[in-house]
Amino acid sequence: MNDHMFVETLIISSSFFAIAVILVASVMFLERKG
C-alpha cells in the first residue's frame, strides 16, 4: 500500500473538485446577474 500515491490522488481529485465548484458558482453568478 503506497501512501504517497494515495495522498497525490487525493490532492488531484480535491483540486479538480474545487475547480468544478468554482466553475459552477461563476456560471450561476453570471446567470443571476444577466
From TrEMBL:
Its main location: membrane. It is a single-pass membrane protein. Keywords: Membrane, Transmembrane, Transmembrane helix. This is Uncharacterized protein YoaI. GO terms for cellular component: membrane. It comes from Enterobacter asburiae. It is found in: Membrane. InterPro entries: YoaI-like.
